[in-house]
Design the sequence.
């Protein structure tokens, strides 16, 4: 599994801190939440952020 870029980790941590109630351990729900909360236009970056948020929420 590749190492996530620093900007993905930074944005993900900020989103979890600002909107903890919007994110869960479901990837598809997190994809929609990232689309609503951010202005990320790239599908690939959106999916990476949603995946990292999902992973962090599953650990907790």
Sequence:
């Amino acid at each position: 599994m590749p190492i996530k870029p620093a900007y993905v980790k930074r944005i993900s941590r900020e989103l979890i801190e600002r909107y903890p109630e919007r994110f869960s351990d479901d990837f598809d729900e997190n994809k929609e939440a990232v689309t609503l909360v951010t202005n990320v236009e790239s599908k690939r970056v959106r999916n990476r952020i949603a995946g990292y948020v999902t992973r962090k929420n599953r650990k907790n």
